[in-house]
Amino acid sequence: MVVKVYGPSCASTKRVLVCLVEKEIEFEDIPVDIFKVEQKNPEFLKLQFNFVSSLTESRAIMRYYAEKYRSQVVELLGKTIEERGVVEQWLEVEHTTFTHQPTTLHSEAKLVRVLNIYEERLSKTKYLAGDFFSLADMSHLPFLEYNVNKLEKAYLIKERKHVTAW
């Protein structure tokens, strides 16, 4: 069965697509143009509230497919309950601290503080949750790309040896 991913070209949609690619799950990317208010179309709204066959939150979707296809290709949740706890912790950090950074000087200072925490963590482990690539790392990719390419803040990454290696 082909997974249908509806969404605009944004971090949340990209987060889901990266997970599906890593798990080698066949998918169809169906763009939703929020500037044309396509997300308000009755057909689209029906999809959002059909909880039997659809999920709407990107991290929930990632968790679902990582769990459903846990043994397929790469383990993204950790092999033990302890590793899973660390993955969940860093997913929460990403969700509450890393992703929702407005583009002001004040927020750049916050981003610097977060990146310093990551630098410290990544000086001890290869990836955020340990020495394995996980949903926690994957979830950061879209906003890292946004900071580097759209906001031209690559220097914030390059100033940190372990974040750069990550």
Oligomer: single chain
Radius of gyration: 17 Å
CATH architecture of the largest domain: Up-down Bundle
Helix/strand order, N-terminal first:
EHEHHHHHHH
Give the amount of beta strand, in percent.
5-15%
User: If you consult CATH, what is the topology of the largest domain?
Assistant: Glutathione S-transferase Yfyf (Class Pi), Chain A, domain 2
Class inferred from helices and paired strands: mainly alpha
In CATH's first tier, which class of the largest domain applies? Mainly Alpha
Arithmetic mean of pLDDT: 89
List the strand order in the largest sheet.
1-2
| Number of spatially distinct domains | 2
Fraction of residues in H or I helices:
55-70%
Would you report the number of β strands? Answer: 2
Q: Residue ranges: pLDDT <50 for 5 or more in a row?
A: none
**What sort of overall outline do the alpha carbons produce when their principal axes are compared?**
globular
Determine the number of helices (DSSP H or I, runs of at least 4 residues).
Answer: 8
How would a crystallographer describe the biggest sheet?
2 strands, parallel
Distance between the termini: 33 Å
